[in-house]
Design goal:
The relative contact order is 0.14. This protein has one domain: UDP-N-acetylmuramoyl-L-alanine:D-glutamate ligase, CATH 3.40.1190. It is of the alpha/beta class. It is globular, with a radius of gyration of 18 Å. Strand 8, helix 3 and strand 9 form a beta-alpha-beta unit. The strands form 2 sheets. A 9-stranded mixed sheet has the order 5-4-1-8-9-10-11-12-13, with helices on both faces. It has a 4-stranded mixed sheet with strand order 3-2-6-7. Helix 1 packs across helix 7. The model has no long low-confidence stretch (mean pLDDT about 95).
Protein backbone atom coordinates (compact mmCIF):
# COMPACT_ATOMS: atom_id res chain seq x y z
CA UNK A 1 0.00 0.00 0.00
CA UNK A 2 2.42 2.65 -1.26
CA UNK A 3 -0.16 4.98 -2.77
CA UNK A 4 -1.40 8.20 -1.17
CA UNK A 5 -4.60 7.51 0.81
CA UNK A 6 -7.65 9.52 -0.18
CA UNK A 7 -8.37 10.12 3.51
CA UNK A 8 -6.13 10.19 6.58
CA UNK A 9 -7.58 10.23 10.08
CA UNK A 10 -5.54 10.60 13.25
CA UNK A 11 -6.63 9.93 16.80
CA UNK A 12 -8.13 7.57 19.28
CA UNK A 13 -8.27 3.79 19.06
CA UNK A 14 -9.62 1.29 21.58
CA UNK A 15 -11.23 -2.04 22.13
CA UNK A 16 -14.93 -1.24 22.52
CA UNK A 17 -17.20 -3.42 24.64
CA UNK A 18 -20.96 -3.20 24.19
CA UNK A 19 -23.61 -4.63 26.52
CA UNK A 20 -26.32 -6.69 24.91
CA UNK A 21 -28.91 -5.23 27.29
CA UNK A 22 -29.97 -1.72 28.22
CA UNK A 23 -29.39 -0.36 31.71
CA UNK A 24 -26.59 0.33 34.20
CA UNK A 25 -23.35 -1.64 33.94
CA UNK A 26 -24.04 -3.43 37.23
CA UNK A 27 -26.87 -5.32 35.49
CA UNK A 28 -24.85 -6.33 32.42
CA UNK A 29 -23.70 -9.94 32.04
CA UNK A 30 -22.72 -10.15 28.36
CA UNK A 31 -20.54 -7.86 26.24
CA UNK A 32 -19.71 -7.78 22.54
CA UNK A 33 -16.24 -6.70 21.42
CA UNK A 34 -15.46 -4.35 18.54
CA UNK A 35 -12.91 -1.70 17.52
CA UNK A 36 -13.56 1.93 18.38
CA UNK A 37 -12.38 5.50 18.83
CA UNK A 38 -13.59 8.48 16.80
CA UNK A 39 -10.78 8.61 14.25
CA UNK A 40 -10.79 4.82 13.96
CA UNK A 41 -14.54 4.66 13.36
CA UNK A 42 -14.43 7.43 10.75
CA UNK A 43 -11.62 5.59 8.94
CA UNK A 44 -13.60 2.34 8.95
CA UNK A 45 -16.79 4.13 7.86
CA UNK A 46 -15.08 5.68 4.84
CA UNK A 47 -13.27 2.45 3.94
CA UNK A 48 -16.62 0.61 3.98
CA UNK A 49 -17.74 3.04 1.28
CA UNK A 50 -14.80 2.08 -0.90
CA UNK A 51 -12.38 4.87 -0.03
CA UNK A 52 -8.66 4.35 0.52
CA UNK A 53 -8.13 5.39 4.14
CA UNK A 54 -5.15 5.44 6.47
CA UNK A 55 -5.31 5.76 10.25
CA UNK A 56 -2.49 7.29 12.29
CA UNK A 57 -2.58 6.09 15.88
CA UNK A 58 -0.72 3.98 18.43
CA UNK A 59 -1.65 0.80 20.29
CA UNK A 60 -0.16 -1.03 23.23
CA UNK A 61 2.28 -3.91 22.97
CA UNK A 62 -0.35 -6.36 24.15
CA UNK A 63 -3.00 -8.79 22.94
CA UNK A 64 -5.59 -6.04 22.51
CA UNK A 65 -3.17 -3.97 20.44
CA UNK A 66 -2.59 -6.94 18.17
CA UNK A 67 -6.37 -7.46 18.00
CA UNK A 68 -7.28 -3.95 16.85
CA UNK A 69 -4.35 -3.56 14.46
CA UNK A 70 -5.16 -6.90 12.84
CA UNK A 71 -8.85 -6.00 12.59
CA UNK A 72 -8.08 -2.71 10.84
CA UNK A 73 -6.10 -4.34 8.06
CA UNK A 74 -7.85 -7.70 7.73
CA UNK A 75 -11.53 -6.90 8.38
CA UNK A 76 -11.85 -3.21 7.61
CA UNK A 77 -9.29 -2.60 4.82
CA UNK A 78 -7.76 0.40 6.60
CA UNK A 79 -4.14 1.29 5.83
CA UNK A 80 -2.12 0.69 9.03
CA UNK A 81 1.30 1.95 7.92
CA UNK A 82 1.10 4.66 10.58
CA UNK A 83 -0.28 2.53 13.40
CA UNK A 84 2.65 2.15 15.79
CA UNK A 85 3.14 0.37 19.11
CA UNK A 86 3.94 1.82 22.53
CA UNK A 87 6.27 -0.38 24.59
CA UNK A 88 4.61 0.09 28.00
CA UNK A 89 1.17 1.73 27.80
CA UNK A 90 -1.82 -0.58 27.41
CA UNK A 91 -4.30 -0.50 24.54
CA UNK A 92 -7.35 1.39 25.87
CA UNK A 93 -10.71 -0.17 26.62
CA UNK A 94 -14.02 1.66 26.25
CA UNK A 95 -17.23 0.28 27.73
CA UNK A 96 -20.57 1.51 26.39
CA UNK A 97 -23.21 1.74 29.08
CA UNK A 98 -26.58 1.73 27.29
CA UNK A 99 -28.25 3.86 29.89
CA UNK A 100 -30.09 5.09 27.82
CA UNK A 101 -29.56 3.52 24.40
CA UNK A 102 -29.86 6.77 22.47
CA UNK A 103 -27.13 8.51 24.48
CA UNK A 104 -24.86 5.90 26.06
CA UNK A 105 -22.26 6.66 28.70
CA UNK A 106 -18.69 5.73 27.77
CA UNK A 107 -16.47 4.32 30.50
CA UNK A 108 -12.84 4.80 29.43
CA UNK A 109 -9.88 2.76 30.67
CA UNK A 110 -6.87 4.79 29.53
CA UNK A 111 -4.68 5.05 32.63
CA UNK A 112 -2.21 6.64 32.91
CA UNK A 113 -2.64 7.59 29.25
CA UNK A 114 -3.69 6.03 25.98
CA UNK A 115 -0.88 5.14 23.56
CA UNK A 116 -2.66 7.19 20.89
CA UNK A 117 -1.84 10.36 22.87
CA UNK A 118 1.87 9.54 22.62
CA UNK A 119 2.39 9.92 18.87
CA UNK A 120 5.79 11.37 18.07
CA UNK A 121 6.55 13.61 15.06
CA UNK A 122 9.36 11.31 13.95
CA UNK A 123 6.88 8.43 13.63
CA UNK A 124 4.73 10.49 11.28
CA UNK A 125 7.44 12.22 9.26
CA UNK A 126 6.31 10.42 6.09
CA UNK A 127 2.56 10.78 6.73
CA UNK A 128 1.42 12.43 3.47
CA UNK A 129 -0.81 15.10 4.99
CA UNK A 130 0.15 17.54 2.24
CA UNK A 131 -1.21 15.25 -0.48
CA UNK A 132 -4.21 13.40 0.91
CA UNK A 133 -7.66 14.58 -0.16
CA UNK A 134 -9.02 14.77 3.40
CA UNK A 135 -7.16 15.07 6.69
CA UNK A 136 -9.53 14.45 9.61
CA UNK A 137 -8.92 14.73 13.33
CA UNK A 138 -10.94 15.05 16.56
CA UNK A 139 -10.36 17.92 18.99
CA UNK A 140 -9.25 15.50 21.72
CA UNK A 141 -5.89 15.42 19.93
CA UNK A 142 -5.20 18.83 21.49
CA UNK A 143 -5.97 17.77 25.06
CA UNK A 144 -2.44 16.70 26.09
CA UNK A 145 1.18 16.49 25.03
CA UNK A 146 2.90 15.15 23.02
CA UNK A 147 -0.24 14.69 20.90
CA UNK A 148 -0.97 18.44 20.78
CA UNK A 149 2.43 19.39 19.40
CA UNK A 150 2.53 16.45 17.02
CA UNK A 151 -0.81 17.20 15.34
CA UNK A 152 -0.11 20.94 15.31
CA UNK A 153 3.04 20.21 13.34
CA UNK A 154 1.07 18.08 10.90
CA UNK A 155 -1.49 20.86 10.46
CA UNK A 156 1.27 23.38 9.79
CA UNK A 157 2.64 21.05 7.12
CA UNK A 158 -0.78 20.74 5.52
CA UNK A 159 -1.38 24.48 5.48
CA UNK A 160 -5.21 24.42 5.68
CA UNK A 161 -5.61 22.75 2.32
CA UNK A 162 -9.08 21.59 1.36
CA UNK A 163 -10.36 19.49 3.06
CA UNK A 164 -8.82 19.69 6.53
CA UNK A 165 -11.58 18.63 8.90
CA UNK A 166 -11.94 19.08 12.65
CA UNK A 167 -14.46 16.95 14.52
CA UNK A 168 -15.07 18.89 17.75
CA UNK A 169 -15.74 15.53 19.46
CA UNK A 170 -16.28 16.74 23.04
CA UNK A 171 -15.14 14.10 25.56
CA UNK A 172 -15.04 15.66 29.01
CA UNK A 173 -12.83 12.83 30.29
CA UNK A 174 -9.91 14.23 28.30
CA UNK A 175 -10.03 17.76 29.71
CA UNK A 176 -9.72 19.46 33.10
CA UNK A 177 -12.73 21.66 32.33
CA UNK A 178 -14.75 23.17 29.48
CA UNK A 179 -12.89 26.44 30.00
CA UNK A 180 -9.54 24.69 29.60
CA UNK A 181 -10.76 22.99 26.44
CA UNK A 182 -12.05 26.27 25.00
CA UNK A 183 -8.72 27.98 25.59
CA UNK A 184 -6.91 25.30 23.61
CA UNK A 185 -9.41 24.43 20.87
CA UNK A 186 -10.52 27.92 19.85
CA UNK A 187 -7.21 29.11 18.35
CA UNK A 188 -6.72 25.77 16.58
CA UNK A 189 -9.78 26.42 14.38
CA UNK A 190 -7.53 28.54 12.17
CA UNK A 191 -5.97 25.33 10.80
CA UNK A 192 -9.19 23.80 9.46
CA UNK A 193 -11.31 24.27 6.35
CA UNK A 194 -14.29 22.30 7.73
CA UNK A 195 -15.46 22.16 11.35
CA UNK A 196 -18.12 19.72 12.59
CA UNK A 197 -19.77 19.65 16.01
CA UNK A 198 -23.00 19.51 17.97
CA UNK A 199 -24.38 22.42 19.94
CA UNK A 200 -22.43 21.67 23.11
CA UNK A 201 -19.22 21.14 21.18
CA UNK A 202 -19.70 24.44 19.36
CA UNK A 203 -20.18 26.19 22.69
CA UNK A 204 -16.85 24.83 23.89
CA UNK A 205 -15.09 25.82 20.66
CA UNK A 206 -16.65 29.18 19.81
CA UNK A 207 -18.61 30.22 22.89
CA UNK A 208 -22.19 29.73 21.72
CA UNK A 209 -24.61 26.85 21.18
CA UNK A 210 -26.96 28.88 18.99
CA UNK A 211 -26.51 27.14 15.61
CA UNK A 212 -26.44 30.15 13.28
CA UNK A 213 -24.16 32.18 15.53
CA UNK A 214 -21.88 29.17 16.02
CA UNK A 215 -21.66 28.68 12.26
CA UNK A 216 -20.92 32.38 11.75
CA UNK A 217 -18.10 32.28 14.28
CA UNK A 218 -16.59 29.16 12.70
CA UNK A 219 -16.74 30.68 9.22
CA UNK A 220 -15.19 33.89 10.57
CA UNK A 221 -12.02 31.92 11.32
CA UNK A 222 -11.61 31.36 7.58
CA UNK A 223 -13.26 27.94 7.32
CA UNK A 224 -15.14 27.12 4.13
CA UNK A 225 -17.82 25.04 5.86
CA UNK A 226 -19.39 24.69 9.31
CA UNK A 227 -21.55 21.67 10.14
CA UNK A 228 -23.65 22.04 13.30
CA UNK A 229 -25.39 18.87 14.46
CA UNK A 230 -28.85 19.54 15.86
CA UNK A 231 -29.74 16.14 17.31
CA UNK A 232 -33.28 15.18 16.37
CA UNK A 233 -33.59 18.31 14.22
CA UNK A 234 -30.91 17.21 11.77
CA UNK A 235 -27.73 18.98 10.69
CA UNK A 236 -27.18 22.58 9.64
CA UNK A 237 -24.62 23.14 6.90
CA UNK A 238 -23.26 26.66 6.39
CA UNK A 239 -20.63 27.61 3.83
CA UNK A 240 -18.41 30.61 3.27
CA UNK A 241 -20.13 31.33 -0.05
CA UNK A 242 -23.47 31.90 1.67
CA UNK A 243 -25.14 28.51 1.43
CA UNK A 244 -27.04 27.60 4.61
CA UNK A 245 -29.42 24.67 4.90
CA UNK A 246 -30.75 22.38 7.61
CA UNK A 247 -30.65 18.77 6.47
CA UNK A 248 -33.43 16.65 7.96
CA UNK A 249 -32.58 13.45 9.84
CA UNK A 250 -33.84 9.97 9.06
CA UNK A 251 -36.10 8.83 11.92
CA UNK A 252 -34.85 5.68 13.58
CA UNK A 253 -35.38 3.73 16.80
CA UNK A 254 -31.94 3.78 18.37
CA UNK A 255 -30.32 0.52 19.40
CA UNK A 256 -27.12 2.35 20.38
CA UNK A 257 -26.39 6.04 19.85
CA UNK A 258 -22.62 5.55 19.71
CA UNK A 259 -20.95 5.58 16.32
CA UNK A 260 -23.72 7.41 14.45
CA UNK A 261 -21.65 10.60 14.37
CA UNK A 262 -18.61 8.70 13.12
CA UNK A 263 -20.70 7.03 10.40
CA UNK A 264 -21.85 10.54 9.44
CA UNK A 265 -18.20 11.57 9.26
CA UNK A 266 -17.09 8.74 7.01
CA UNK A 267 -20.01 9.22 4.63
CA UNK A 268 -19.59 13.01 4.68
CA UNK A 269 -15.97 12.53 3.58
CA UNK A 270 -17.07 10.18 0.82
CA UNK A 271 -19.60 12.73 -0.38
CA UNK A 272 -16.99 15.48 -0.49
CA UNK A 273 -14.58 13.32 -2.48
CA UNK A 274 -17.44 12.45 -4.83
CA UNK A 275 -17.91 16.20 -5.53
CA UNK A 276 -21.48 16.10 -4.23
CA UNK A 277 -21.16 19.34 -2.27
CA UNK A 278 -21.40 19.83 1.47
CA UNK A 279 -25.19 19.65 1.72
CA UNK A 280 -25.59 16.39 -0.18
CA UNK A 281 -22.59 14.99 1.70
CA UNK A 282 -24.45 15.80 4.92
CA UNK A 283 -27.59 14.06 3.63
CA UNK A 284 -25.59 10.93 2.97
CA UNK A 285 -23.93 11.34 6.35
CA UNK A 286 -27.33 11.42 8.02
CA UNK A 287 -28.32 8.24 6.18
CA UNK A 288 -25.18 6.44 7.35
CA UNK A 289 -25.65 7.72 10.90
CA UNK A 290 -29.22 6.47 11.04
CA UNK A 291 -28.15 3.02 9.90
CA UNK A 292 -25.54 2.75 12.66
CA UNK A 293 -27.91 4.12 15.31
CA UNK A 294 -30.21 1.20 14.46
CA UNK A 295 -27.36 -1.26 15.19
CA UNK A 296 -25.38 -2.14 18.30
CA UNK A 297 -21.72 -1.79 17.31
CA UNK A 298 -19.66 1.02 15.81
CA UNK A 299 -16.85 -0.13 13.49
CA UNK A 300 -18.27 -3.56 12.73
CA UNK A 301 -21.69 -2.10 11.90
CA UNK A 302 -20.60 0.72 9.58
CA UNK A 303 -22.75 0.61 6.43
CA UNK A 304 -21.77 -0.20 2.88
CA UNK A 305 -22.47 2.10 -0.05
CA UNK A 306 -25.54 0.19 -1.25
CA UNK A 307 -27.10 0.53 2.23
CA UNK A 308 -26.59 4.29 2.29
CA UNK A 309 -27.95 4.52 -1.26
CA UNK A 310 -31.03 2.56 -0.19
CA UNK A 311 -31.78 4.91 2.71
CA UNK A 312 -31.34 7.93 0.45
CA UNK A 313 -33.70 6.34 -2.07
CA UNK A 314 -36.37 5.19 0.43
CA UNK A 315 -36.13 8.17 2.76
CA UNK A 316 -36.06 5.85 5.77
CA UNK A 317 -34.13 3.06 7.47
CA UNK A 318 -35.71 -0.29 6.60
Amino acid sequence: MDSIPEIITIGRISVDLYPTTEGPMRDVRTLQKSVGGTATNVAVAAARLGRSVALATKVGDDAFGDDVAHALSSRFDVDTRWVSTHPTLKTPLAFAELNPRADPNIIFYREPSGPDMELDPAELADLPVEETGIFWMPATRFSAEPSRSTVTGLLERRGRRDHTILDLDWRYQFWDSEAAASEVISPMLNHFSVVIGNRQECKVAVGTDEPNEAADRILATGATCAVVKLGGDGVMVATADGERETVAPYPVEAVCGLGAGDAFGGSFCDGILSDLGFVEAARRGNAAGALVAARLLCADDMPYRNEVDQVRSDGRVA
